[in-house]
Structures are given as structure tokens and as C-alpha cells.
Specification:
heterodimer; A: 510 residues; alpha/beta; Amidase signature (AS) enzymes; 11-stranded mixed β-sheet; two-stranded antiparallel sheet; 38% helix; globular; B: 485 residues; alpha+beta; Arc Repressor Mutant, subunit A; 3 domains; 15 helices
């Protein structure tokens, strides 16, 4: 048996095959392990342990054989390596944690495991999730399955690449400034960043704590419903996790119920299911820097939505450009403090030679962290310093509130969802901006605002452009909703995916 | 030149919660190193803090007891600095908006009542401990190590205004605060184990000058005695420095109790830039009024209220009432003794408890709860003084016997067995008086010549003859009558 994930390309099909015992979870896991091996060149995985994986698969088979399997039992998934896991190493893509194994599982890992998912291993990422091309990893870059000379995006680049290359049915990612949506767009998969607080951050190696949020990547919105519904929920180990979402307890079932309800309401109008839906299109998302091929693909997608009955509304998010400086002050400020625990004292890299304690920490950090991480620690330390705090950190927090206000004005007065591009261009070559490390930051302009506001957003495949090497590369459409609107967003995306097939294209066969 | 001393104290009180302020690890003292440190205390990747409400309860208790404002919304901030026993390399504390704001504490210095205002009290986590002497390395070799059992223990840092004007006032304030936190049950008060740690900000200025002098912060003061000495040393140092034409430099100084001196730890120039910012892992601490009210329901009668009651109901002097309300246990002991005595005998009970009982407890380094003489037993003894069975002096001997458990500590049994009953038979006493007068004509002559001392000498001889058991009042009366007749 080969290419199980091509034969059963979504969760429903795979679940059907597993529960009817046409396919065993063990065979499926072995098939995925072989395929991962075959695609080792993508450099998507940083740690694989076949014994651990197969043990989980056998457990899944036991459940399936006795009819106790659930929808996700036996599904092969993998975790971005910022989720800590018992068994597999948890490195955050850093030399600092190259040998680190966690004594506990992240809540997200626990929840998916409890639902029966089988873990195939840990996925490469930008070091401590800082980056947007998966270039900043101590384990080397991950390659885009559509064009291996291009980046897969980042920081959840390998999560998107692994799903796009059909190495796993789905993967976890984290999104601090676009790190789920942007790689999903660049690899042609579907990804969602839920509302801040919907998913527990416990066991997620922190980057920017007020911005970090976990989200799944898969090949369709429908699959994301199944995954996100299980991943999310209130967690008493995370003080920032929400107990209630729009008056409903934050627990599994919330997102599925909202999705079903929205989906049902869409069915009431067979020809124009999205009639009445107002799509806000922010004019600031279509300014300078947006490539024409991305602009055109987004335009086509919006037309498709209009055909489905939705109404297009021109809106303004005036502080869009300011989200870049606001983000690159707040995220590094939090990161500089979050990463100070990596000092070589209790765990992680410790320098081989040092003169005293202070020197030990200084050298361990100098050796353990990569250049992008150091850059952000330096910025963060600076903006929190005495005399600069007001001018940078407080100012950025003021901007953040204005950005929240902009989104709220749009989403409460003018539209139900916001749509636009995820990225200005298709995936860039891996060596792009090599000598200008902060130039990549500008490409985050469409994704950062969402994190600053804590809103949910998705990327769904909506077309192709042409990469630097001439190969076709995917384009993603960003769909943004109001707080805790995940179920509804997924239902809107599902409508689009029922009339388009961009999400079904497979890398190498476009 | 005359100098005025200005002192403000910052006190770190370890709150008596079962678990740590942001994790579920035990706070028990004395466990093997690092056996009470979980992923949060070790700052493992992915761990997150969760506020322990029991620590907030205790902060509210203090706030209510000192008449402070309890902030309905306070903020946890990160204080960033690298130190090996600080696992996250930042401390979660409160900076701009603390949970307890204002309030005051009243206490007695000698017999003068003094009130010191509080600036604030804020919640924060304790650090671990670096162990340089008694830590054993992986190969059995002596080594430096870090014990994170204490890391994350809840602290309430209570900051006073700089309103104390002498070392004695500072000590009196510290003692009053110490007894208050124990009274409230929010801290075990154990200074040896570091449950109550004091830093003193000390400065001097010429009498009459408005602005404060440059202050130094003295750390590592772990007893009231050392607090007093450290302040005295520091005041001397600063005055001498200024009088010699020098200038006090703002710095942190460490008190060395062996050398009885303070020495510089770090100057203001070396001071850390802590880069405080609100902790994004913890939402603002919201304390609704009903939370405050629910804590209020569980508050004990406060020492100030009890003090006032002792003065008004029992006629005690303010200073006596203050001493009896040093701790809840002591106050309860007094109330229990007093309840058994006839009305109007509170002063006797107070004198005994603050005198014989306290002195013996101090000598044996015991707490009132460990007293071998129970309140009931003491009351039984005092009843025998009141009814004239024994004198106050004899009662002390009986008390000593009760303390060591003779005759099951029963005062009547002791009095009986030892034949200590007071001689109140006036003919017996008269016989003793006559005998002493007959044997001491010279002293009698001195008395008659107007020497009052001679009278006391004769009383002493009579009491000696009576083995201390003669009723002293009767001895006095009879002797006087016979001499003056």
C-alpha cells in the first residue's frame, strides 16, 4: 500500500477507511514514516521516533478494532517543535534546546493525543518561532514542496510543508504574527489562527505571550473544524485561556456546533448560500508592495464569494502599516523576557568553557541562540529599558489599542468578515533578503494586525502565481472574523472550498 | 550638629499558603533540595504561571487589618534580572499598581503610641537559594548548587513610609508588623527560616531640614536585635561620613552580624535596569467587593480592638493592654485566666502573665502555647493569692513547682504538700514579732531614732523566721503597732 494520504485525502475519508478496517492505523503510520523518509530533503522533521509513533498507532488500532475509535483515532499528525512533548525532543528549532526533552505534554498535544491522533514526530520551524521563512532554524531551512528552492513560509513552515507534501494529514502550528496563515498560504494548505485565548498556550514554548496562539494546518476547512474543535478549550493551566466564548463554555463542541449552525443556515439558499454575508475588503491590503498575481488571485476569490451571494464592502483599516512597528516592539519585548530563562543553568545548552556564572550564561546564550533570536532579544531589551519604555513599549501598546479599534469598527459596523491577501507575493527563494534580515518583516503587513487584535483568521488556497524559479506557487486568501467566530469562519471557507479545488491541488501535480 | 534619623522598612513576609503563588508545588520548609519544584518553578519551556487565590486572600487580610485600600484591579509585572536562583530570570511582582495601597500600623515605643503609614503591600514570588557550602555535587564532591524549593513561595512585600525616627521605633514597628501578620495567620513569622525578612532604608538629615538625606538600603537583617544594631551602625557611619566632609552614596548595604557592620553590596550606578512591564501571562488581578467581604467575614478580632476592650472592660493600662495583645495566643491566655478570677483582678493576671509567665517562657525559648502552666492552672494559683492562702512571693515558688510539673502542676496540692499556706494567725505572728524584737534591741533603737530602713530589716527577720509564710500585711501591721506602742 502506498500513498494512503493521497487515496484518502481528508479526515472523513481517512476515518472511514480506518474505522472500516480497510486500513490500519499502524499501516498508515508506517506509510507516513516511509513517505517522510522519502521526502527527507524537505527537512520538515527535526525528530522522528518510529517506536513511539508505532506504539501510538497500535493503541489506535486497538480502539478501532473494538469500535471505540473516535473521528480522529489513528490520524497521522505532527507537531511544530514549539509544542513540548514527552518522548520526542522539544527544540524550538534552536541549538539552545537541541537535546531537550520535556517531562510533560503541551495541552494541545495532550488534547489531540486524547482524541486518538498518532504523532509522527516534531516539525522544523524558525527558531523560537521567530521568522517567516523557516530559514532561521538551527536544523537548517525547510523547503517548499511546490518548489524546493523556495521557502515554505514560517515560522510554522514545516507544518505547512508536511501537510502540502502529504506526509501527514494535519499538523499543529503557532501564529504570533502570521506563522500559521502565512506558511499555509505559501504551501497551498488551509490553516487557522483562532482567537487569542481559544486554545491553551500551556506547553507552547513562548515567543510573544500576548500574541501567541496555536492553530492547525490541514488540507481543507472541513478538516480544520475537526482538529480545532478538539484542540481548543479552557485550560486552568493557562491564565489567558478563555472560560467562555460569546457566552458559550470554551470546550470541545463549541466550534463544531457553530460551524454546523452556520453551515445549515447557508444551505437554506441553494444558489446563493452566502447571501447576506458582508465581506469587508480593506483598501490598505491592496497598496504598494502587493504583487499583481496575488492581487489578481484575491480578486478572483472575492468574485467567487460574490457569486455565492456575499456582498463586497470597501473598508479601511487605517493603522495597517503601523502594525509592523507595533508588532516588532511588543513581540520582541515579550520575547526578550520569555527567553531569559535559557541561561544554561538548569537545562539547555551550556557553554563548554566559562570563567564564572555570569560568563557561563552569557556564553551559553551567545552560542545557543541564532542571529534572528539575538536580534529580537536586543530590540526587546532596548524597548523595555529605562528611558525608552514610554517612547517604544507604551507607544506600541497605544498603537495596539488603535488597531483593535480599527478592526472593531469594521467588524461591528461595516462587515461580517474581512478578506484580503495573506502575503504580498508567492514564496520567495530561500536566499531572498539574505543580506537584509529585517526586510522580511515588511512582508508580514497583512497578518500582524490580527495578532495584535487577538482576532481569528484563516488562510485558504485561492490560486497560483509563479515563483522566481518559474514554478507555480500557491496563493492564500485571508479570512478574518470577529472574536470567537472560528466556527462561522470555517463555514464560510467551506462554502468557498465546495466550489473551488485549489485546496485539492497536490504539490508536484499542479 | 544635631541629626535626625529617617527610617523606612520593606518587609518580605512569606505567606502561609499550602502551595506556591503561581504553581501547585508545596511550600513546606526543609524538604530535600529541589523536591518541591515543578515545571513552573523550574521555568521549563512551555510552563505558565497561575495565580494562587489563597495568596490573594492573605494580602486582603493584611489590607483590611491596616485599613488600606484593596485595589479592585492590580497588575502583575515582570522584574527582569539575571540571577541563577531566579529560574525565569525575571521575578513576577507588582510594580505600578499593587494590591494593597496605604494603611497604617500603630504600636508602642516605651509607653508612647506611634503610628506609621504604609505606602503599599504587593504580591510577588520568592527566589530559590544558592547553596555554596553544604551542597554535594554529582560525584560526591563539595559543590555550589541551587535549591528551587523556595522559588515561587508567595511573598507580600510591605513597604512603610519613611516615618521612623530611631532604631527603637523601627524595631517596635517591625515587631508590631511581625505580630500582626502572625495574628492574621498570613505568615508563620519564623525569622530563622526567612519567613519574615526586613530591609531598612536609612538616612540622616540635620534637625529641621525638610528634604531627606541620601538613603542606604540595608539588607540581610534577620532578627530584631540585628535590625537595631544594623541601623545604629549605619546611622553612626552616615553621620561620621558627613561630619568628616564626606557624602553618603545611595547604595545597597549588607549587614554583617559577626562584625556588627554594614558594607557596600552595590551602588546606585550598578543598580539593575529591571525593565518592568506587565506580565502577559497573567491577566490583571481583579478583586470584586464580594471577595473582600468574604475575607472580612473570616477576620479575627484585631489587636487594636482587643487592646481597646482590655482597657475599657478590665481597666488595664494601655501599655499592658498592648503587651498582652502581642499575639492572639497570649491575648487568649490572658482572657482565659481573667475569666476565672473575680472581677477587678485583671491587673493581677496581667502582671503575672507579663512577669513570671513571660520571663519563664523567654528563658526556655517557649511560646505561650507551649506553657506547661495552663491558663486554668495559673488562675487557680492566682485565686490563692486573692483569698490570702499564699503571698505573691510564695506564689512564685508554687509557680516554679507547677512549671516543672510537681504534683501534676496542681497549685493547691503543692501548697499543701510543701506547707506553704500563709500564716495568718495573728497570735502566731505576734509571737514571732516579739521574738525578733527581743533579739534585736539595737535595730529597734535605730528605728526609734528615726531610721525607716530598720523597719524593713525587722520585717525581713520576721519573714525569715516564718520561712516566708507569714501574711506580710499582718506582719507589717503588728510590727508597727508594737514598735509605736
Amino acid at each position: 500500500m502506498s500513498n494512503a494520504l493521497q487515496r484518502y485525502p481528508n479526515i472523513a475519508a481517512l476515518h472511514q477507511a480506518l474505522s472500516s478496517r480497510q486500513l490500519s492505523a499502524t499501516e498508515l503510520a508506517q506509510d507516513c514514516l516511509r513517505k517522510i523518509e522519502l521526502h527527507a530533503g524537505l527537512n520538515a522533521f527535526v525528530h522522528i521516533d518510529a517506536d513511539l509513533t508505532l506504539a501510538q498507532a497500535r493503541e489506535a488500532d486497538n480502539l478501532l478494532a473494538t469500535g471505540r475509535g473516535s473521528l480522529l483515532t489513528g490520524l497521522p499528525i505532527a507537531h511544530k517543535d514549539v509544542f513540548v512533548t514527552q518522548g520526542w525532543r522539544s527544540t524550538a528549532g534552536s541549538n539552545m534546546l537541541k537535546q531537550y526533552t520535556s517531562p510533560f505534554d503541551a495541552t494541545v498535544v495532550h488534547n489531540l493525543r486524547a482524541a486518538g491522533c498518532v504523532t509522527l514526530g516534531k516539525l522544523n520551524c524558525d527558531e523560537f518561532a521567530m521568522g517567516s521563512g523557516n530559514k532561521h532554524s538551527a536544523f537548517g531551512p525547510t523547503h517548499n514542496p511546490w518548489d524546493t528552492s523556495a521557502v515554505p513560509g514560517g515560522s510554522s513552515g514545516a507544518s505547512a510543508a508536511a501537510v502540502a507534501a502529504k506526509l501527514v494529514i494535519a499538523a499543529t502550528g503557532t501564529d504570533t504574527g502570521g506563522s500559521v496563515r502565512q506558511p499555509a498560504a505559501l504551501c497551498g494548505v488551509t490553516g487557522i489562527k483562532p482567537t487569542y485565548g481559544a486554545v491553551s498556550r500551556y506547553g507552547m514554548i513562548a515567543y510573544g505571550s500576548s500574541l501567541d496562539q496555536a492553530g492547525p494546518l490541514a488540507s481543507s476547512a472541513l478538516d480544520l473544524v475537526d482538529l480545532l474543535d478538539v484542540m481548543s478549550g479552557f485550560d486552568n493551566k493557562d491564565s489567558t485561556s478563555a472560560e467562555h466564548c460569546k457566552g458559550v463554555p470554551n470546550a470541545p463542541g463549541r466550534i463544531r456546533d457553530e460551524f454546523n449552525e452556520a453551515d445549515k443556515s447557508f444551505h437554506s439558499n441553494a444558489t446563493q448560500p452566502l447571501k447576506g454575508l458582508r465581506i469587508g475588503v480593506p483598501r490598505e491590503f491592496f497598496g504598494e508592495g502587493l504583487s499583481s498575481e496575488v492581487a489578481q488571485a484575491i480578486e478572483e476569490a472575492l468574485k467567487q464569494f460574490e457569486k455565492l451571494g456575499a456582498k463586497r464592502v470597501d473598508i479601511s483599516l487605517p493603522r495597517t502599516a503601523l502594525s509592523i512597528p507595533a508588532y516588532y516592539v511588543i513581540a520582541p519585548a515579550e520575547a526578550s523576557s520569555n527567553l531569559s530563562r535559557y541561561d544554561g543553568v538548569r537545562y539547555g545548552h551550556r557553554s563548554a568553557s566559562y570563567s564564572d556564572l555570569e560568563d557561563m550564561s552569557a556564553r551559553s546564550r551567545a552560542e545557543g541562540f541564532g542571529s534572528e533570536v539575538k536580534r529580537r532579544i536586543l530590540i526587546g531589551t532596548y524597548v523595555l529599558s529605562h528611558g525608552y519604555y514610554d517612547a517604544y513599549y507604551l507607544q506600541a501598546q497605544r498603537l495596539r489599542r488603535m488597531i483593535v479599534d480599527d478592526f472593531q469598527a469594521a467588524l461591528t459596523q461595516h462587515c461580517d468578515v474581512i478578506m484580503g491577501p495573506v502575503t504580498p507575493t508567492v514564496a520567495q527563494p530561500i536566499d531572498h533578503n539574505q543580506n537584509d534580515p529585517t526586510a522580511d518583516w515588511l512582508a508580514d503587513i497583512y497578518t500582524l494586525g490580527l495578532n495584535l487584535a487577538g482576532l481569528p483568521g484563516m488562510s485558504i488556497p485561492c490560486g497560483f502565481g509563479t515563483g522566481a524559479s518559474g514554478k507555480p506557487l500557491p496563493i492564500g486568501l485571508q479570512v478574518i472574523g470577529n472574536y470567537f467566530d472560528e466556527g462561522r469562519l470555517l463555514a464560510v471557507a467551506h462554502q468557498f472550498q465546495q466550489v473551488t479545488d485549489w485546496h485539492q491541488r497536490v504539490a508536484g501535480q499542479a | 550638629m544635631a541629626w535626625e534619623i529617617v527610617i523606612g522598612l520593606e518587609t518580605h513576609t512569606q505567606l502561609s499558603t499550602q502551595t506556591k503563588i503561581f504553581s501547585g508545588s508545596s511550600t513546606r520548609y526543609g524538604a530535600l533540595p529541589n523536591t518541591q519544584a515543578n515545571e513552573v518553578d523550574l521555568a521549563l519551556p512551555g510552563s505558565l504561571p497561575v495565580m494562587n487565590r489563597a495568596a490573594v486572600d492573605r494580602a486582603i487580610r493584611l489590607g483590611l487589618a491596616v485599613g488600606a485600600t484593596i485595589a479592585h484591579r492590580s497588575i502583575f509585572a515582570r522584574k527582569n534580572y539575571f540571577y541563577p536562583d531566579s529560574p525565569k530570570n525575571y521575578q513576577i511582582s507588582q510594580f505600578e499598581i499593587p494590591v494593597v495601597q496605604g494603611g497604617s500600623i500603630s504600636f508602642f515605643v516605651d509607653d508612647q503610641e506611634k503610628t506609621v503609614n504604609l505606602t503599599r503591600a504587593h504580591l510577588e514570588e520568592d527566589a530559590g537559594k544558592s547553596m555554596h557550602d553544604d551542597f554535594v555535587g554529582p560525584h560526591g564532591e563539595p559543590s555550589s548548587g541551587i535549591d528551587l524549593n523556595r522559588a515561587g513561595t508567595p511573598l507580600l512585600e510591605i513597604v512603610s513610609e519613611p516615618e521612623m525616627r530611631s532604631a527603637a521605633e523601627a524595631v517596635a514597628y517591625a515587631k508590631a508588623l511581625h505580630s500582626l501578620v502572625m495574628w492574621l495567620g498570613i505568615c508563620d513569622g519564623n525569622m530563622q527560616e526567612g519567613s519574615f525578612r526586613i530591609d531598612a532604608n536609612v538616612s540622616v538629615r540635620p534637625v529641621g531640614q525638610q528634604e531627606f538625606g541620601t538613603r542606604c538600603e540595608i539588607k540581610n537583617v534577620n532578627s530584631f536585635k540585628f535590625l537595631e544594631r544594623a541601623i545604629q551602625y549605619e546611622v553612626r557611619r552616615q553621620i561620621e561620613l558627613i561630619e568628616d566632609g564626606g557624602r553618603v552614596v545611595q547604595e545597597t548595604r549588607l549587614y554583617d552580624s559577626e562584625l556588627d557592620e554594614t558594607r557596600s553590596m552595590r551602588s546606585k550606578e550598578d543598580a539593575h535596569d529591571y525593565r518592568y512591564f506587565p506580565d502577559p501571562d497573567l491577566p490583571p488581578l481583579v478583586i470584586a467587593q464580594d471577595w473582600i467581604e468574604s475575607v472580612r467575614q473570616t477576620m479575627p478580632e484585631l489587636p487594636a480592638a482587643l487592646r481597646a476592650r482590655f482597657i475599657s472592660d478590665f481597666g488595664l493600662a494601655p501599655i499592658d493592654a498592648a503587651q498582652l495583645t502581642i499575639s492572639r495566643d497570649l491575648a487568649a491566655y490572658f482572657e482565659s485566666v481573667n475569666a476565672t478570677l473575680p472581677a477587678g483582678q485583671a491587673k493581677l493576671a496581667a502582671n503575672w502573665i507579663m512577669g513570671e509567665v513571660s520571663a519563664t517562657l523567654n528563658r526556655e525559648e517557649k511560646d505561650i502555647t507551649e506553657s506547661p502552666v495552663s491558663a486554668t492552672a495559673l488562675a487557680a494559683l492566682l485565686v490563692r493569692i486573692i483569698d490570702g492562702t499564699i503571698s505573691n512571693k510564695i506564689a512564685r515558688d508554687v509557680f516554679a513547682a507547677m512549671w516543672t510539673g510537681e504534683y501534676d502542676g496542681n497549685p493547691d496540692a503543692i501548697i499543701q504538700a510543701k506547707g506553704l499556706t500563709q500564716i495568718s494567725d495573728s497570735s502566731a505572728i505576734a509571737a514571732m514579732v516579739d521574738a525578733v524584737l527581743a533579739d534585736n534591741p539595737a535595730i529597734v533603737a535605730e528605728y526609734r531614732a528615726g531610721k525607716q530602713k530598720a523597719f524593713n530589716s525587722l520585717v525581713g527577720q520576721i519573714m525569715k523566721a516564718a520561712k516566708g509564710k507569714a501574711n506580710p500585711q499582718q506582719v507589717n501591721d503588728l510590727l508597727k503597732a508594737k514598735l509605736d506602742s
